[in-house]
Amino acid sequence: MIKNIFRMCFISMVIVLFAGTVFAAPPIKIGAILSVTGPASFLGEPERNTALMMVDEINKAGGINGRKIELIVYDTQGDATKAVQAVNRLIKSDKVVAIIGDSTTGNSMAVIPVVEKAEVPIISCAAGVKITDPVKKWVFKTAQNDSLAVMKIFEHMKEKKIKKIAIITVSDGFGASGREQLKLKAADFGIEIVLDETYGPKDTDMTAQLTKIRGSSAQAIVCWGTNPGPAVVARNVKQLGIKMPLFMSHGVSSKKFIELAGEGAEGIILPSGRVIVADQLPGNDLQKKALLSYVNNYRKHYKVEGDHFGGHAWDAIMLIKEAIERGGTTPAAIRDQLEKTKNFAGIGGIFNYSEQDHAGLTKDAFVLVQIKKGEWKLIK
Amino acid sequence: MDNLYQYLLSGLSNGAIYALIGFGFAIIHNATGIINFAQGEFVMLGGMLALFFLVFCGFPLSPSIILSILIATVVGIIFERLAIRPLKNAKPIRLIIITIGASIFIRGAAMLIWGKDTHALPAFSGNDPLYIAGATIMPQHLWIFAVTILVIFSSRLFFNHTIIGKAMRACAYNAQAASLVGIDVRIMVMLSFSISAAIGSLAGIIIAPLTMTSYDVGIMLGLKGFCAVIIGGMSSGLGTVMGGLLLGLLEALGAGFISAGYKDAIAFIILLLILFFRPEGLFGKKETERV
């Protein structure tokens, strides 16, 4: 009798196990190429962390339409060759249905021909305008265009009647793109760039350039770069006793910048994604819910503050998730559904993709913040 | 005119940094005939260690500085023991390549230990700029000037008036003869590595409040120091100081009056010109041994 009960138990267990393997659908494979190490690690690392965190969350909540997601991440180290190899591997051997990344504009551009040929949708986390302009059928992006940040600054200057500015930009891809956009958009807002200075990414002293700016007729300074250069600029501005307002790019909208620039950070104004001022947003802000959940989640997982770079990956994963929920799991279906994304309130802004627009954001994706006493203050 | 003063002052203060870093190159070169391309990494180590003790361990300033210099010196000694001494009678070029390898190793290790972030060290005596004839410098610059002058004087005293210093000079003139009169050449080489590691890390500590520090600052600072010492003709005295100040001035004036885009180019064009036309340096005499 007892033997029989054991046998029954055993058989039922086998059936349950067997049923589990038969009926659970295989996971949906999504690929990620991110510059986790190397010069762009300040982008790639939070992006990878965020993507892994999100996939974990989605799987815990039961996956997408009952299927789990499997995220395959390759570190491209900021190297375009590695990015192309990684995308090939994702498409050919891992057989992913969609890809997110890369973190930099250069790498994102390098992999476009590969995904177009294989017809797999990719959502880039880089900011370069040329990634989605002109529109490419299989390519989307979540990071805000540099031009939107420039317009946000100029709009504010126009309000404050600032007509003459000096710009100081870093001589790398990010700075060059910012410089191009600053020069392109200035005239539209009635602003004249009286001095156009640059500095090297590893420079540790910008007093020469800033001295020149101090002697010019500029009414404000715009600095375009990523840490640590702008922190040196901020410190040097203070050292030289320059009283003109200092504007920075969204490239420094992380706590690290305030820490590095110290007292020099006081009063600096910059455009940023909403994530750093999530708790200051008015209650009716459409993104507030997503932002707060991201910020709290990230803090819980990684014990550090989430930044808007990680937010680009959050948006990419969630956009893919929603596309799959609506339309299925083939690369073509995901692509078609991505294009139909409307009013998706993410971390970077409110996305509206269309056939003509694969960047999906307006300048309202940015808010202007000012650094006061070492904290971000939303400028309303 | 205000601008000119500021360029001069900025140039001189950066030049003092380059000179101090260049010093370390000169000391090792003069004792061993090799150029230690890991010198920049000692500068980085100084800054990062000081940051570690000061900010993470919460030690007061002076013990942090002393501890950092001590540890960097120990690293210098270990480096010499493990990477330089085992290769007896190796040609200088092989040793130089080893120092490049060591620099990559130290940089990588620093990245693993402290991560990739840039960090700022608090200034020693405040952040309020000082005004001199309409131009400004930071109080930290005065520290740099003071330490540079102190290092020059003490190295003068050391090399000319102490028995060990004289022994080191003897090794530079002729290692074989020096060993014949009873000087332990190996000890002197080790000593030169520890002194230059100490000076390098000291430089790294006092510049970190200004330039900030991260695992990879050593490359560029090391190269600039190398330029300074080449202009100065590998001297461990005034030559390198003049070389550093000249380099700093040209950079600042170039950035101010021509374009900041050429700042690094200026340094390296000078380096190439000097190496082509006056390899003995602007201030060196031809074909003499220098210490």
Structural features, described:
With 380 residues, chain A is α/β, with parallel strands linked by helices. The termini of chain A are far apart. The longest helix of chain A is centred in the N-terminal third of the chain and has 22 residues, at 2-23. In chain A, 44% of the residues lie in helices and 17% in strands. The mean pLDDT of chain A is 89. In chain A, α2 links the parallel β1 (28-34) and β2. Helices cover 73% and strands 2% of the residues of chain B. Chain B is built from eleven helices and two strands, in the order ααααββααααααα. In chain B, a hairpin with a 2-residue loop joins β1 (130-132) and β2. In chain B, α1 (2-32) crosses α6 (163-173), α1 (2-32) packs antiparallel against α10 and α10 packs across α11. The model of chain B has no long low-confidence stretch (mean pLDDT 88). The chains are: A alpha/beta (380), B mainly alpha (291). Chains A and B meet through β7, α7, α8 and α9 of A and α1, α8, α9 and α10 of B.
Task: Give short descriptive properties of this protein.
heterodimer; A: 380 residues; alpha/beta; Rossmann fold; 2 domains; five-stranded parallel sheet; four-stranded parallel sheet; 12 helices; 17% strand; elongated; B: 291 residues; mainly alpha; ABC transporter involved in vitamin B12 uptake, BtuC; two-stranded antiparallel ribbon; 11 helices; 2 strands; globular
